[in-house]
Design goal:
The complex is a heterodimer of chains A (296) and B (372). Chain A is mainly α and 296 residues long. Helices cover 68% and strands 0% of the residues of chain A. The relative contact order of chain A is 0.15. With 372 residues, chain B is α+β, with helices and mostly antiparallel strands. In chain B, the strands form 4 sheets. A 6-stranded mixed sheet of chain B has the order 6-7-8-3-9-10, with helices on both faces. A 5-stranded antiparallel sheet of chain B has the order 13-12-11-14-20. Chain B has a 5-stranded antiparallel sheet with strand order 15-19-16-17-18, with no helix packed on it. In chain B, helix 2 crosses helix 3 and helix 2 runs parallel beside helix 4. The two termini of chain B are 29 Å apart. Classes of the chains: A mainly alpha (296), B alpha+beta (372). At the A-B interface, helix 10 and helix 11 of A face strand 6 and helix 2 of B. The complex binds adenosine-5'-diphosphate and magnesium ion.
Chain lengths: 296, 372
């Protein structure tokens, strides 16, 4: 496939004439990268010096010697001048559990509901479809108070269950899978029927493998969505042991009397960045592969 | 191997009656082709046999066992779809093996069957490939292989060749014919292509708007079309259909607009009654004769082996004439034409059916002997 495309590519591309205007998009892009990259760079620099240097307000633009120390302190939750904070190790574990549970849960629930809506005829099918569709208009922020009521009623406050379950239902993912399922030709379903595959077999043997690329794409998006949750974890967790890294890092910022260990916070921030970056980096390669030898 | 019997099968979609009472029985090992224009209900009928579509009325039996009401997998059939419907994520091997796996056959047996079938269909080198890595013809063969490995009582084909280019279609047509003859499995084959039907079928069922117009061997249908629809549908270029009236003496036909043609036998019917007269283009001969007609050529299509002339008869009715070779006729030429009386087909213009009086001995004899 890719080989034949390469074969057909013109052997020689005529050299494009240089036009000054071509520089503009590049300039815009470079500016964008700098704007995005500079704060990240400052985080990195901050994580390499001691708290005093940052507090004095003359942070150099070159890395200092303390990166590993700061990372170690953040990771274990010791060594700051301030009151002890929850170790970043614990926070990251909480974040990881939450992000994975949300991503996997959302995918599992929505692929099953999309399967029902797209392939089965049952009474009130369209009613259910529209009910799911309408929940798009009710994001967490809108229904946060009643949701908290319910979660508290079930005694799930300050637990992984309370942290993740209310965020798992996903209309977006359901609709996405439904759209994909509608493109699966009827004949494929019928061929499977004649081969003797029941609904469950068809789902596991045919539909799930065909959805691989969609699942991978959704996983990336949903993992980051889960990792970055702020409002809901802030509300539903109270003990330090349940802090996610996004919450925990903000808690590390002092409120006035106490000194703020900015170097440790920056180190924690660096650590917090790693899992989403890793997921994107790893899955992106997989995604591209999935798209290249697409079978549909 | 088994018979496939349909008894008074009907199908209704809301107010639309897609199949209106079809009776047909495919004999054991027979190749039965369902032929008809798009939308006439061929696929619906086939899918009802497969169990992919419920039946509104009637009965379907395969191998003497009633199957309407059974799940597709329990009907002991295999189906080949127009777009192949291969599992895109499975290798050729797995595509063929999937049905057997579900049935719980032992691994060794599955491997043996798939390998044997793949060799028969010349697919052995491609067993590890995905469908997307195969050409159209190879995919078609995998689809057939998937049907063959199951060793079903009947094959069902729904326009399996219409996604292929003309050359490949001819080649695959031969392969299907050979395969079916070799395996001897009863086959129902849906197509709108009369050439496919004529070449593949033991018998053809010609369908029109949900009814069976005629069931018979290909040449029988060609030489004795049971209705105007069949007459016009089978044969290319199509049969000339002319308006005519029975002459006063009952021994000839007066063409609308002028001209008289003699009949092989006297017609009992009333003089002056209107009929539709069918003459195949190859049965109009460019020779002068008693009671002959003339054709004014409007267009000539030379195909090399044969030439088709388009023109108008004396009375102005359009007609086509087919001749062997490359005769040099130009637009404007006037040719004498005659037709052998036994090559005439008479239809009732009201019912569209072949006139029963043309089935009498004087009419039938020569034509039957011409067929066999
Ligand atoms: N699911 C359906 N609902 C309503 N009408 C249908 C359905 N399937 C087929 N039909 C109608 O039945 C008729 C026969 O269709 P089909 O069997 O697909 O024709 P063919 O295969 O001969 O082209 C058509 O008029 C079509 O519109
Ligand atoms: Mg069809």
């Amino acid at each position: 496939m890719s080989a034949s495309l390469l074969d057909q590519a013109p052997a020689k591309v005529a050299p494009a004439r240089f036009r000054p205007l071509d520089l503009l998009p590049h300039a815009v892009l470079v500016l964008g990268v700098l704007l995005l990259g500079f704060p990240l760079y400052m985080v990195f620099i901050g994580a390499t010096w001691d708290a005093g240097t940052i507090a004095r307000g003359n942070l150099p633009l070159t890395p200092g010697p303390l990166l590993l120390d700061n990372l170690a302190h953040a990771w274990t939750g010791t060594g700051g001048e301030r009151v002890m904070h929850t170790p970043v190790r614990v926070m990251m574990w909480n974040s990881l559990v939450m992000a994975l549970a949300i991503a996997v849960g959302k995918i599992a629930i929505s692929i099953i509901s999309a399967y029902a809506i797209a392939f089965f005829r049952f009474p009130l099918r369209m009613v259910f479809f529209w009910m799911i569709f309408i929940t798009l208009m009710l994001p967490v922020e809108v229904r946060i108070v009643p949701t908290y009521e319910v979660v508290a009623g079930f005694g799930m406050v300050d637990s992984y269950a309370g942290l993740t379950i209310p965020l798992i239902a996903s209309a977006t993912a359901t609709l996405l899978f439904r759209q994909f399922f509608l493109t699966v030709p009827d004949e494929l379903v019928e061929a499977a029927k004649i081969d003797g595959a029941g609904p469950l077999r068809f789902f596991l043997d045919v539909l799930l493998p065909l959805s691989r690329t969609n699942i991978a794409a959704l996983f990336v998006i949903l993992f980051i969505y889960g990792w970055n949750q702020y409002l809901w974890p802030l509300l539903v967790t109270s003990s330090g042991d349940m802090d996610t890294v996004v919450i925990g890092v903000t808690k590390m910022i002092g409120t006035g009397e106490a000194a703020t260990d900015w170097n440790i916070i920056m180190a924690a921030t660096l650590l917090a960045l790693l899992p989403p970056v890793a997921v994107v980096a790893l899955m992106q390669r997989w995604l591209v592969k999935g798209l290249v030898d697409s079978e549909k | 191997m088994a018979t496939v019997e349909l008894r008074q099968v009907t199908k209704r979609y809301g107010a639309v009656e897609a199949i209106r009472g079809i009776d047909v029985a495919a004999r054991d090992g027979e190749f039965l082709v369902l032929l008809g224009p798009s939308g006439c209900g061929k696929s619906t009928l086939l899918r009802m046999v497969a169990g992919l579509e419920s039946i509104t009325g009637g009965e379907i039996a395969i191998g003497g066992r009633r199957v309407d009401g059974l799940e597709p997998k329990d009907r002991d059939i295999a189906m080949v779809f127009q777009n192949y419907a291969l599992y895109p994520h499975m290798s050729v091997f797995d595509n063929m093996a999937y049905g057997l796996k579900i049935r719980g056959l032992p691994k060794a047996e599955i491997r043996a069957r798939v390998t044997r079938t793949a060799e028969m269909l010349e697919l052995a080198p491609y067993l590890d490939r995905r469908p997307s890595q195969l050409s159209g013809g190879q995919r078609q063969r995998v689809a057939m292989g998937r049907a063959v490995v199951r060793e079903p009582a009947a094959f069902l084909f729904d326009e399996p060749l219409s996604n292929l280019d003309a050359k490949l279609r001819t080649q695959m047509r031969l392969e299907i014919k050979r395969l079916q003859a070799r395996l001897g499995v009863t086959s129902l084959y849906v197509t709108h292509d009369q050439v496919e039907a004529m070449t593949l079928a033991d018998r053809i069922l010609v369908m029109n708007q949900g009814v069976a117009e005629q069931i018979g061997a290909p040449l029988e249908i060609y030489s004795r079309p049971a209705s105007l629809f069949v007459a016009g549908f089978i044969g290319s270029p199509p049969m000339n259909i002319l308006d005519a009236r029975i002459a006063d003496d009952g021994r000839g036909l007066l063409l609308g607009g002028g001209g008289r043609i003699a009949l092989p036998g006297p017609l009992a019917a009333e003089a002056g009654q209107p009929v539709k007269l069918g003459i195949r283009p190859e049965h109009l001969k460019p020779t002068a004769g008693p009671g002959g007609l003339s054709l004014t050529v409007e267009l000539s299509e030379a195909l090399g082996a044969e030439t088709v002339l388009y023109g108008r008869l004396d009375g102005g009715q359009p007609a086509q004439l087919r001749m062997a070779g490359m005769p040099a006729h130009r637009p404007g030429d006037v040719l004498p034409v005659t037709a052998d009386p036994s090559d005439l087909h008479l239809f009732d213009p009201r019912t569209g059916r072949r006139r029963p009086d043309t089935e009498q001995p004087g009419w039938a004899e020569r034509r039957i002997s011409a067929v066999s």
